[in-house]
Amino acid sequence: MKRDDPAAVLESQTGARGDAPMVRFTGVTKRYGALTVLDELDLEVGRNEKVAIIGPSGSGKSTLLRVLMTLDPLTDGMIEVDGEPLTHMRRNGVLVPASVKHLRRVRSKIGMVFQSFNLFPHMTALANTIEAPIQVLGLSRKEATGRARDLLALVGLEDKCNHYPSQLSGGQQQRVAIARALAMRPKVMLFDEVTSALDPELCGEVLNVIRRLGSEHDLTMLMVTHQMGFAREFADRVCFFSQGKIIEQGPPQQFFSAPRHERTQQFLRAVKEAV
Hints:
Belongs to the ABC transporter superfamily. The protein is an alpha/beta fold. 38% of the residues lie in helices and 25% in strands.
């Protein structure tokens, strides 16, 4: 089997859906012109596994989440979600580019929370949270509203349902964004530097919500973060990115206490000195 034939790799590895990882990247490459941001990356994420993704700016961390969410197209490679190819589909036993219907269905298993909240400013917290379930999932307004109220309560904002984003703190807006993503009932949650725009106190609010989600709900989570303490405490595995590749990964205790790769050691020293 050729290493540059990720479709063949995927076909050989995918068995029963229950046996497959929740997310699998095979030979994933992303280029912008001459710049390679992800370089033939392979990564498997188990069901309900919590993975922290760290590394210097420009190392490909956020791009990994964006290609998984299909916000950026792949240059090469394959992505599989819940045992199914994401940007491809099987037709007569052959993998072909995914139809819009297939792409939407598989992508609906993924929720993403962004650094900049991305709430609709003209909608209340409740309206922001019910919009996608009504428009995309076809839920009735009554059912979507009940789901949204439960999720806003989950993130500690049951009393802010009728507030607009401008009436909420940054931490509260980010918690609405988390509730909005959860309203689609995803199996995979992506968090892209969700605390980087917040001051330390508001940062704690959001991290507490993520802790609760991780402990109380069956969710696979990939989190790009600069919060080393949180990564050490929360993650099942830490992946260190450099120049579009994962150059070291492992359980948090081993990763932070005894990093093996010289580049990882340099990065962690720089982070420690910056605190």
